[in-house]
Write a structure and sequence with these properties.
The structure is a single chain. The protein is of the alpha/beta class. It has one domain: 3-Layer(aba) Sandwich (Rossmann fold). It is built from seven helices and ten strands. A seven-stranded parallel β-sheet has the order 1-10-9-6-2-3-5, sandwiched between helices. Helix 2 links the parallel strand 2 and strand 3. 40% of the residues are buried. Fructose -6-phosphate binds next to loops. The site of fructose -6-phosphate has 13 residues, from loops.
């Protein structure tokens, strides 16, 4: 059962997210799954203003574009350095290698690391089509780290970060749904009107591979934070 907390102030929402991470750390969490995207930027900015110390912790990012070097400004490695790691270094930080020569070797390497260091805490955003990580609709709930071809709608949603849609990579590596579900505790942030429809699907406890995030309805410890209020007079 997915729990939800609704906020009327973005500042309160992000403060609560920071407090949740601090609490997890205080309870012994040392391995953190991290996400990128617009939703996470204010969270990382807030974390950087605190005295949280991740220097004994390990991080794993959910995903990375194929074909972008870590120094490319739109790679997720670059994003993480810029928004978090430069100010808050971890003992070790892992991301899939977007330049890996052999996708099968790379996905096995990453999944192996995840199994070696089980995730205590996973941070998630959500796509309008229900994706988590880059697990697009139709992805098996049994999936492990794998190579994906991005949906056109996902490329368009992410085109805002590139100078044109043609520059948005067509493939990415992502943790699978099963890799994400193994995390002990999951915090999902659903921010902005564009996420309303998919949030309702998630909270309705649907369980369908057509909406990847609905896998979470079977996870014992998921909290969703949102700025979206319940719609009144819903028919
Ligand atoms: C990014 C990721 C994606 C995003 C999702 C929402 O690492 O895993 O699933 O969380 O696409 O992106 P924003 O926050 O930009 O709306």
């Amino acid at each position: 059962m997915v729990k939800v907390k609704r906020f009327s102030s973005m500042d309160d929402l992000y403060s609560h997210a920071v407090a949740t991470i601090v609490e997890a750390k205080n309870n012994g969490a040392t391995t953190f799954g991290l996400a990128t995207g617009g939703t996470m930027e204010p969270l990382y900015a807030k974390i950087c203003k605190t005295d949280i110390d991740f220097s004994h912790c390990i991080s794993f990012n959910l995903d990375e574009y194929v074909g972008l070097e870590a120094t490319h400004q739109q790679s997720y490695a670059y994003y993480m350095n810029k928004h978090l790691f430069n100010q808050k270094p971890f003992l070790a930080s892992y991301l899939p290698d977007g330049l890996a020569v052999d996708p099968l070797v790379e996905t096995a390497r990453y999944e192996g690391l995840l199994q070696q260091y089980p995730l205590d805490f996973q941070l998630l955003g959500i796509g309008q089509n229900g994706h988590i990580g880059f697990n697009e609709p139709g992805t098996s709930f049994a999936s492990l780290t794998h190579l994906v071809t991005l949906e056109e709608s996902t490329r368009q949603a992410n085109a805002r970060f590139f100078s044109s849609i043609d520059e948005v990579p067509t493939q990415a590596y992502t943790m699978g749904i099963q890799s994400i579900m193994r995390a002990k505790c999951i915090l999902l942030l659903a921010v902005g009107e564009a996420k309303r429809e998919v949030l309702e699907r998630l909270l309705a406890s649907d369980y369908t591979e057509d909406v990847p995030a609905t896998a979470l309805s079977k996870h014992p410890n998921v909290m969703v934070l949102t700025d979206l209020q319940e719609e009144e007079n819903k028919l």
